[in-house]
Amino acid sequence: MPKARPRRRLAFAALVLAGLAGAGLAWKGHRIYEKILYLRYGGELPAPRGPAPGDPLQARLQDLQVLAALPSVDRSFTSGARAAFERQVASLRDRAGALDEASFFLGVAQAVALSGNAHTNVDLASWREKLAALPVRLAWFPEGLFVIRAATGNESLLGARVLAIDGYAPEALEGEAARYFAGTREYLRSVSHVALESPAVLHALHGKASTDRARLRVRDAAGVEREVDLAALPAAQAPRAVKPGRLRSPVALADEAPGAWHALLGGRAIPPSLRGPEHVTYATALDGRTLYLHLWQVRDEPHEPIASRIAHALGDASTPPWKRIVLDLRFDAGGDYPTVYGALRDLAQRLAPDGRLLILTDETTFSAAIICAVLAKHFAGPRAVIVGSPVGDRLEFWAEGTPATLPNSRIRIGVSTGYHDWAHGCRALACWWPNFYYDVAGGDLAPAIAVRWTFADYARGIDTVLERALR
Length: 471
Description:
Oligomer: single chain
Number of strands: 16
């Protein structure tokens, strides 16, 4: 008999994988499932060739040798993006001996961002590990850029609006920093604070700016304007990076030294949306007929499946259905969406026939959290209402893959090998094969009720978006 054509073999493998996904995955099935996924999507950057580097220049050239292979493994690059990437890497190679550590890091970030795909970026954790940052943490609101966290000694800046950094408007600096981040305008808004907090980035954008400090012009709650000069903290003295939006919660970070940092909302009553970030979910009944359910992550707890936590919050069939369920997907950077597929279907079934599912989104809703929004909307049908602002990525994107770490600089990079299309459904062989079983054509996630969390409300511990949804 003639051999099966490669595309037919791939299609057959995809269908087998979809069957395993839908069968509940017994332990052997799960191992096969993971093996097939790795063989198809687990491409890794090649190990460096040659002997161990003998000096810093050789170490950088070796890193660039590894980095140069990225478009051969990451499938999100178009031919034009690949050509631009190759030019950037060649430029870095030519200048490798003259660059300081921060400039080399930013050059790598700029090269990777040429993918145009938000999952193919230098990891935010590397931004914090490689670059010194100011002793404040910033967040965007509709009114502008504000200080929401500060290291000890800088508490007087909490709640201040940042009008200028080294003489430049924050909005203009954000636009200039876009070269370091692939993705949508919404994604840039969610992550750009790591660039604006770094003097090294400001110096790269404007050569007259200092490399180790920045001058901020701020306006406090009383309307008083002043200028402050802040020295950067070494990366080792600052908490590690967290997912976008997490810093809005005053709950201490896992590696935050007690008393070293202070949050604007510290010691105040906080809205449900900022509670429980140390867990994958937070749930509470707002009244007898309204359930609030926040997915902080889309993955299992170490000792408890996320589906079990959601089921416990929803209650079983012997209890009355909910008149309203608020599914909050803000500050959720994603995870493994099949872990919640059944729970999202059950969520719609626990809703009263005339009830409403209120899905909250914003620019920090990303990756698997976007998929959760699509699935929840699909299962609830006309009872679903999206409230908030646009999510942090397109509904058509590349993801999955095995993250890469450059061997000497230890810069971590996202690698994308599986395609998703949650607007139209995904059946091409480039698609992430589990979607053959799980995905739906979700249309779009444009909010039916457009509203953003204002700083005026945030400073008082009020969640503008949640309050509007409940009205």
